[in-house]
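Hi R.,

Here's the input for the beta-D-fucopyranose complex you asked about:
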Amino acid sequence: MGENLFPEKFIWGAATSSYQIEGAPDVDGKGESIWDRFTHTPGAIWNQETGDRACNHYHLYKEDVDLMSSLGLKAYRFSISWPRIFPQGGGRVNREGLDFYRRLVERLHSHGIKPVITLYHWDLPQALQEREGWLNLDTARYFEEYAASVFENLDQSVDMWITINEPWVIAFLGHAFGIHAPGINDFNSALLVAHHLLLAHGLAVKAFRESEREDESIGIALNLAPVQPMTNNSSDLEAAERSDSFMNRWFLDPIFKGSYPADMIDILSRSFNVPEISEEDAALFSQPLDFLGINNYTRILVEGSNDEDAFTGNPVNPPDAVYTEMGWEIYPRGLYELLIRIHREYGPLPLYITENGAAFADQLNEDGSVDDEGRISYLHHYLLEAQQAIAEGVPLKGYFVWSLMDNFEWAFGYSKRFGLIYVDFQSQKRYLKNSACWYREVIARNGLIE
Ligand code: FCB
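And here is the predicted structure with beta-D-fucopyranose in place:
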């Protein structure tokens, strides 16, 4: 291995999710999802935008796979829209919905691209939301049924399965802070949802182990970020500990140790109802996984707060830092720190970076080019850190850029472009940004360009 090469068989990929790219919200029997509903709620989304058309990937998937192939991607991470398979959440499989994913997987295979499938990237069937959604334990049971039925009916090989994408975001942005679907603002609800998501994850892993899918693997994708104190004074240090327990360990610990972090239970239970983890729950939550997917974009820097019951520190934006269009600090070293820490505390198990990338205000030039040097630099520096972690023994097996192409960025609508590929949402034309050409070269050499 040359100094700047990645390990042989390193998986170079790119990621998307169903609601963010597919469009076709009611085609071929698809049911309504909570994101279909939420985006049509006045005031919920920037500029009232919706995913109704998004990248129209449902109809343009062939062209999109050809683009992936032209970049030399080894793997493509996408999600299945649950209401395409079960328009009402459960019951009978909607064959036409499933067929879309069959065609997609087939096309990926024909180009030698490994499919990596997320079962839940936030588009819950609205029919289940009518019954309290993730607040209802039944939703975890419906998820088990949905997962089992995909394992049984998607009869092609799928290299990797991801049960749930970013349960923290689902629980807290969706149910405590109301900025994601279903738009609920209630912290107790968020804690219960978190618990049910862990159950859903566990039930899906169990269903997978009981299925006949051999030589395939399963894991989960968590949004994780290193948390650091602004100074070394005790108040900042303590604030960083708390924020880490809330932001990272609230899901890491149950999944790898079968318990919520004790310090956070202490603090939260002063004001909220913290669900108890029974022995049975613990066993379900912490079944062995084949890998952990890490979504990382930035770090969290905090200082102490005067409020004794505060469960996180106060976030600070360091003055000299550089930020992306999301307002997220560019902090490549954080990826190295995170990988080392996760490996040490929760390993050993194979790790994947299932999302990393940056939004910039990209401009399409007249000749169809996009000079996104900022994105190239971002990706380059994060990858350098990943490489160092590998050199120090972290079993990082692959890396997925968020995102393959510009898409619907949730509450921000189309105002944030994360893609390697520029999408003109009017004409639905795709253009390779300079970062896509750069990534193609990185993949071809299996290493960074000096
Ligand atoms: C993550 C989501 C993904 C995308 C990126 C920017 O939280 O998983 O869908 O929106 O952020």
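One thing worth noting: The chain has a mean pLDDT of 97.

Cheers,
M.
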